[in-house]
Amino acid sequence: MTIHPFENIRNFSIVAHIDHGKSTLADRLIQTTGTLAERDMVEQVLDSMDIERERGITIKAQTVRLEYKAQDGKTYILNLMDTPGHVDFAYEVSRSLAACEGSLLVVDASQGVEAQTLANVYHALDAGHEIVPVLNKIDLPAAEPDRIKQQIEDVIGLDASEAVLISAKTGIGIDLVLEAIVKRLPAPKGDETAPLKALLVDSWYDAYLGVVVMVRIIDGTLKKGQKIKMIAADAHYEVDKIGVFRPKMQDVAVLGPGEIGFITAQIKQVADTRVGDTITDERKACDAALPGFKPAQPVVFCGLFPVDAADFDDLRAAMGRLRLNDASFSYEMESSAALGFGFRCGFLGLLHLEIIQERLEREFNLDLIATAPSVVYRIVERGGEAIELHNPADMPDPTKIEEIQEPWIRATILTPDDYLGAVLKLCQDRRGVQVDLNYVGKRAMATYDLPLNEVVFDFYDRLKSISKGYASFDYNITDYKVGDLVKMSILVNAEPVDALSMLVHRDRADARGRAMVEKLKELIPPHMFQIPIQAAIGGKIIARETVRALRKDVTAKCYGGDATRKRKLLEKQKAGKKKMRQFGKVEIPQEAFIAALKMDG
């Protein structure tokens, strides 16, 4: 039973913007320290999900324990946490940072500091981390290390004079990174003799082991067979298995202060293991719990419905299993007249929504329809009571509403100077309010306050297309503000289609309504009677299109003769069409729903 002295342990995470080389650097560190045999090495070792490999992004933070023999002759235990770079997974990043004392800040030596670099560095600084800047991709012809060092000092305010220059792909400078980790990052602190105090960093479900819990030991020791208590959940367990990740699981007998590892304890539900909870000894509890994490607040909601109603039970089971591995995803059941039974789901952003939808379709073979994404509005009723509105179809009677508040965000956009005009116009069009604009070298950094409602649909795609992919964007939610919002309903043959109703700003309702009815006119196939498609706010119709009826030529059998005979046949047909329209049901094909929901002009 060996407990490693803390001065020989380093816990660190790698933070960076998307695609600046975090996972590749993690691969090189694993390879250089000989943690995995050469035959087991693959690219992006820590990105274990198929979807992570295909998209080339990290979704779940992963941990690995490395052993490194430094130049001073000592052997160090390095616990590395590879974190996601995308804004939708900032929650994963904050959890990982809480378990570490230091960070490697990876910056692309040709692209420099991006919006997400800033956001992740500020997360690390808030967590009290020591930060070592690392300039990656110095083997590229476009690399400008001196300019980027200056940029790090100007934008972030970190001393970058001793930044480590590396190429994670070719392996240049990896030894220097390992030495910098050992020399420049602090060792963890802790008391081995104190009662056990451990932070629950993450938990997930394993088909063979049940719930696996990742822990960071602060004080005391954790042994196999020990009886533990989770303070917030008030649950008691006995530890079955204890180990570390090298990236595969490896059993150990004991974990001491400063170490990161995992335990299993016959826990049945991941819901019982709250991320950020404090684990302590059942009999000899620690005096105070750790502060923990704020629960993840979903910002985007959308309905997910099975294309085939018979798949509803499979969808319910699949959601339950996904929820086990992703604490930031929430769902509740709902039903819709147009789409049948489904679920209203909450996500941290649009990429999160896309990933969950893709995982449901892939891992569980489901065909799904997603309704238009919407944000959480706050409605203050005349009595003063505030309610949260996740689904526009549930909006109360307008006469009872005092005001509607919508969430606003503070967005930081970094863009090359050439595209600044187009970027500012985009923000202006989306009801943005400029807060700040300054220059960092040749790039402009614009700070805007924007309503989240306007950003959710396709702001990111528009931003990338007008800046040819060069602009980067990061945001955090600030507060709720009162907005002049109205509910826009879409009526097909005078019947409201609940899946297409949405909350829009009054100034933009006409344009949004017109675009929606024009789109639906192309998508709904002609029936035997004409179909009016209308966009309405309350009782007022703001836009209308008509799908022409299919007509049978009833006068074909009349050869000449009296004109009144033809008129009689046409009148009879007209009466029939009118009756049909009253009783006829309009079949809206699923493709029309999907295409209409993707629409945003």
Automatic annotation (TrEMBL):
UniProt-annotated location(s): Cell membrane
Supply the EC number(s). 3.6.5.n1
Q: What class of enzyme is it?
A: hydrolase
Concerning Gene3D superfamilies, the annotation shows: 3.30.70.240, Elongation factor 4, C-terminal domain (3.30.70.2570), Elongation Factor G (Translational Gtpase), domain 3 (3.30.70.870), P-loop containing nucleotide triphosphate hydrolases (3.40.50.300), Translation factors (2.40.30.10)
| Catalytic activity, as annotated | GTP + H2O = GDP + phosphate + H(+)
A single GO molecular function term of this UniProt record: GTPase activity
Q: What does this protein do?
A: Required for accurate and efficient protein synthesis under certain stress conditions. May act as a fidelity factor of the translation reaction, by catalyzing a one-codon backward translocation of tRNAs on improperly translocated ribosomes. Back-translocation proceeds from a post-translocation (POST) complex to a pre-translocation (PRE) complex, thus giving elongation factor G a second chance to translocate the tRNAs correctly. Binds to ribosomes in a GTP-dependent manner.
Q: Tell me what this protein is called.
A: Elongation factor 4
